Structure formats: C-alpha cells, structure tokens
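Holo prediction — adenosine-5'-diphosphate.
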Amino acid sequence: MKKGAIELVCINKAYGNKEAIKDISLSIAPGHYCCLLGPSGCGKTTTLKIIAGHEAPTNGDVLLDNRNVTNLPPRKRGTALMFQNYALFPHLNCVDNTAFSLKIAGVAKASRRAQAIEMLKLVNMESYADVLPDQLSGGQQQRVALARALINQPDVILLDEPLSALDPFLRGKMRVELKRIQQHLGITFVHVTHSQEEAFALSDQVVLMHDGVIEQQGTPREIFQQPKTAFVAHFIGGHNVLDGQIHQNEFHTGSIRVKGLTQALSSVPRDHWPQQFSLRFDRIKAAPQPDKGLHTQAFTVDAVEYQGAVIQIQGHYQTGPELSVYVSDKAFFAHPFQSGQEIYLGWEAHDLNPLQPPVHS
Ligand code: ADP
Ligand code: MG
C-alpha cells in the first residue's frame, strides 16, 4: 500500500491579526504529485510548513496516513522539507551533506556513506560525491539538497519553489527529473510554485490558492478546461473573462449573452445565469471578412504578438469586451492582421464557460 496520504482539516493560521490561511481543508492521495499554486503571499509556504510541522496551525488538524500529527515535531512526521535556498553546508562535500541527518542519528560512517551514495545516484550526482557545494552549479546543488531530503526515506516530500532559482533551460530539465524521482519512489510530493506552467507539467493534483483560501483544485486539465472563477481564469492564463448580460427580449428563453455583443451566437441557456464567462484564446476563430459562424460585429485589432506556434491578437469590440485570440502561425501568415485592422471573430456557445462569483467578496 502506498504511503503519504495528507489530510488538512479546517486549518487556520493567523500571524497577529493577519490571517494567512483561512479554513483550508485538503486531501492529497498517497503517491500523488500535488502542486500548491498561487501568487506571492497567498499562503503556499505557510501551508507547506504546517504540513512539515515547522509552523503550528492556529486551528485545525494535520493528518498523515490517518495519524493526527498536529502536535508532533517535524522529525516524527515522516515528512521532509526542502528549503527554497537549498541550505547546503558549505564546508561539507556532497556525501557528507547528504548523510548529515544520518550522522546526527548516530549511523556508522560506512553505512551512511553507502546510503548517501545511493541517494546521489538517484539524483544523478554520484560522480560529485566528494565535491564541495561552491563548486556546483545551482541545479547540481539542488539535486544534492533533494538527495539530503530523501535520505530518511520520508513518505512525503515538501518542496518550496524548488525550481525558481534555476534558469529556464535547467528548470525544464529538473522538472522532468523531479517527476521521474517521484514516480520511482512512489511517495507523495507537495511542491509549491507560483508558475502555472510548472504546476500543470508536474501535478496529479493542482491546488490553486488565493489570499489564504483554496480557489480551485483538480487535475491540470480540469482546471484549464473549467476554471471556476475569474481569478482562476486570469491566473492560469489563456482565458478571456467576459461579463454576462441577460437580454430583455430573451428573458423568456432563459438565455444569457456576452455583454455588449448583439448576436445570439454567444447566448448560453442556463438555469443559473452566470455573471461572467471564461473563453479560451485558442477557441476563438478569426477571419479578415465576415463569414458563416462568425460574429457580424467588427473587432478592432489593437496588438499583434508573435509567440512562435501561435500569434496572440489583442483587440476590442466597439460596444463590447476586449479579447485575446490565439491564431496558429500557419493561419496567421496566410492572412496576416495588423494593428488597427477590423476583423471578425466567432466561437461555439459551449466554449463559453460559466464562472462562479468570486470566493472573496
Ligand atoms: P506564499 O508562500 O504563498 O508567498 P506565505 O505563506 O509565505 O505566502 O505568506 C502568506 C501570508 O502570511 C503573507 O501575507 C505573509 O506576509 C504572511 N506571513 C507569512 N509568514 C509570516 C510571519 N512569520 N509573520 C507574519 N506574517 C507572515
Ligand atoms: Mg512562499
């Protein structure tokens, strides 16, 4: 049976009168890769420290594999926390850094060296066993920090922004490594990040936090397909947020349309009328002329941004919303648009995703 099930039950954390965490409940299944995602200050690190036992919650309980560990010190929980700045000892080589906690625990030298080498092998650093940290690159130091965190065979490993100090190329490489190691060990990883791309690439479960609460959680695909609130849609990117409007003449039909647009093309019958919708940039069609399936109102292009595989068009309707649209490079260069040009857009009614009112009022 896999180990490392985490259950947070109604956790609150206040620093003075600042509530950093507001009544968070969360289950993470054993052996899952979970990312805590959100902007700076939303409570990710605090949540991680509460799981690790480096902070005590003001209220609520932490359960690990159904044991209530709320009052246990970090070393008795079966968790290991890897700090943001790696915190390697500068005067110890990679083996001694990795084996440090075994030394404290009184494990004999030969045995702890053998275990440390095993861990360094796992993170592909065995050839640097006798090297000091200042001779290593940032990515290499991080691998050693990971080996050090893994040596006590934790059921849960907690990583606070582990990739943020690396350059984009190394970050991509380390991301693949982290996933490989997690799958190899079959333990639970909880990884804090403010990068949506990182969270989507790694996670079985994404927990998107905002101002001390969980705004939405689910698989990356669930969150991208159906963002729940305008905050989520904005944060994960690639989505427009549009206001809904009930049109007088359509009241009896139960339809709602995008505010400022004349055509019923964008009407969505709903039992509960949403105040807002999200609409993916890549679900909008764009053409230089009005056509079947396109909105008859002209859309003015304000900016054209080359992004490689897609071109991002930003623009607005005279009486309606501003929108961003992705056009594939092939389609774009067949009919390039320019700033100031009037074009025509269209989308399927089912691509309008109804949003719930904000979690924060
Ligand atoms: P994140 O990791 O998402 O950036 P944190 O969990 O570090 O956010 O912080 C959440 C909130 O709690 C922030 O407003 C932060 O200023 C506050 N906070 C965190 N740690 C402390 C502390 N030791 N004392 C006072 N306020 C704190
Ligand atoms: Mg943080």
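READOUT: The longest strand covers residues 18-28.
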